[in-house]
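Work through what follows:
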Amino acid sequence: FRRARDSSATAPPVPADVPCFEAAAWREGDQLFHRDPHWLGSDVASTVDLGGNRTLWLFGDTWIDPTGRGTRQGAKMVSNTVAVQTGSNPATATIAFQWGATPTGAPAALFPDRNGERLWFGNGVRVNDRLVLFFARVISTSTGLGFEGVGWTAFMVENPDDAPSAWRTRELATPRNALGVDVGFASVLAMDDHVYAFGSPANVSSHSIFAVRWPAAAVRRGDLLNPEWWAGDRLGWVADSSAAPRRPLFEHGQSEQSLHRDATTGRFLAVHSHGFGPADLVMRAAPTLTGPWSEARMVYRPPEYNRPNVMIYAAKAHPTLAGADVVLTYATNTFKFAEQL
């Protein structure tokens, strides 16, 4: 999506408003996801700057066609995959998708399912020579949308400059929280010697967005056990052991969204979808990471909006990509499974 000239860039920083956007589909950029006849679509689509002009894409449920015919007939859905994009402009970059394999060679999740539990990528962050990836843990159910969140976890990648097939990974110890927040699922941001992770309570439709943080040095070591939580303007950041109530940055976000600092305006921008089924892409703004956050403002209505049975979700910005002022992605799905095929 291409942003129009921002006429309010010199406005007072408080209260912040969403910059003026002129949004349009970017067909050339979208072709990035249609170059591998085995990889046929996914959820999530978060990005992590790996350095060296490389971007890591993180995907959730993904269709893999082992035959390479480019069809979902006979394809397998796996819980997570990744891709490494080389070059910052999606319209001209190269990309290499990666997934796992079973002992018999069938497609599998890169981070395997375990004991009936799947790992869905949230977001990730590179800290110096290490990469930390955040996941939601989910199980299948016979009700609702067919899944339920049961917590979060994180993995350390010790050699992120190597191909994902050669990664050395280890699961990190992560603390539970009474709110049931999937930490890191709704964006991760490295800034000012800290790593900030955002999330909303699993299985709660209001999607209040909470924030935690760690010193960047602790994240680089893989120490996530002692986060600080945002507790509002009066208390600020409090220790995980504190009895102080946690305060959300804003209400009515989404479990999957993005939050970043806009290089042009200096404002913090949050992008997410609004609606269940047919949904618009909306944006919020704030002068500081902790707010005050504006109300959500619509910036784009996807062309799939009026399609029967449609689900539109997982709207996110990708601030390290080039070729447009701000690049956004969103996922589409259907309430009728047969339509996926």
